Amino acid sequence: MNLEFPSPSSTPIKALHYKNDSLELKVLGNKFVNQGILFTGNQSMEEREESFKISDSMEVHCGFYGDDSIFRIEKEDRAYLDNCKAVVSTCNFGGGDDLYQPINMTLASLAKVCYVAFWDKITVEAQSLKGRVQDERKKIGHWRIIVVNNLPFSDQRLNGKIPKMLGHRLFPNARYSIWVDSKSQFRRDPMGVFEAMLWRTNSTFAISQHGARDCVYKEGEAIVKKHKATPEEVSIQLSQYRNEGFPEKARFNGHKALAEASVIIREHTTLTNLFMCVWFNEVTRFTARDQLSFPYVLLRLNFTNINMFPVCTRKAFVNSMGHVRKTKPIDVDTAA
């Protein structure tokens, strides 16, 4: 109850800027059918390589490339996001999951931490049929609902990576965040989680180790076998990594670097923000299965202030409820 936010952590990056080019968007708009590229920008391989070279001042692709009509959030909702200093967030695009109320938080945490769920209109309609309707404060229980219009990708898994990975862009004034996948119920006090996973361990980022495998290439085989991505897209990504010399069993501080990313805890520093930008760029370039790109980005950036906690700790943070149904692709030309 007495926990307060500590002073900001030091970082080697003094200024992190995000690429934005409305003029290029006009050209891209005539060239590409998929408006996802209008959201991400057309990152070249040279720009990709430069994004891994840490310096005092950097400029990288990080979504929100310049077309404000894509991933559109109402002005009132943006004002709410701007006021959050710490946040627990989730999202449900396509109506594939129910909304699970967080539990076991203190009143002191409720006064310091926002709870935000990003939905699209499909989810609003699906949840209203189950009696979950926003009140006059746009809340359902503890969750403040943010309805997003004009999602950039036809693949809802990619749309979900935006609030998952680009929280620093959606919450520009937040210092800390906890991401929880929509299939889970968060069941811990967030201030206590920050203290245990970040402050006590002198970390700026915390994520669970993978529970089953320690090899990104074996993980790729498992993803294809479970039909969670096509063999072609996984092959393109892992061939790129293999050609760059990425090892089969990447290690980090003596632990496996392969992660399970349903819970992400972090301080919003320029370095962790860069990490999330680069990770997002890998996901949108290759496959939506973010566990394939995480260890690659981790080792390329030589990111050290990270707490990779065991699976049992992740299970202590959330109740895993599972997906209600599989989401369908959307027509990005008519979903606005």
Give a description of the structure.
By secondary structure, this protein is of the alpha/beta class. About 35% of the residues lie in helices and about 20% in strands. It is built from 14 helices and 15 strands. It has helices at about 20-30, 35-40, 45-50, 75-80, 105-110, 120-130, 155-165, 165-170, 190-200, 215-225, 230-245, 270-285, 290-300, 310-315, and strands at about 15-20, 55-60, 70-75, 85-90, 115-120, 140, 145-150, 175-180, 185, 205-210, 250, 255, 260-265, 305-310, 320. Strands 3, 4, 5, 6, 7, 8, 10, 13 and 14 form a nine-stranded mixed sheet that branches. A two-stranded parallel ribbon has the order 1-2. Strand 4 (about 85-90), helix 5 (about 105-110) and strand 5 form a beta-alpha-beta unit. Helix 7 runs antiparallel to helix 12. The longest helix has 16 residues, at about 270-285. It is globular. The model has no long low-confidence stretch (mean pLDDT about 90).
Low-confidence stretches: none
Mean pLDDT: 91
* Inertia-based shape: globular
Structural class: alpha/beta
How many strands? 15
Please tally the helical runs, counting DSSP H or I stretches of 4 or more residues: 14
Alpha carbon gyration radius: 19 Å
Q: What fraction of residues sit in β-strands? A: 15-25%
What are the secondary-structure elements, in order, as H or E? EHHHEEHEHEHEEHHEEHEHHEEEHHEHE
Helix content: 25-40%
Largest sheet: 9 strands, mixed
Intertermini distance: 43 Å
Domain TOD1/MUCI70 glycosyltransferase-like: 35-323
Protein name: TOD1/MUCI70 glycosyltransferase-like domain-containing protein
InterPro entries: TOD1_MUCI70 (IPR006852), TOD1_MUCI70_glycTrfase_dom (IPR048354)
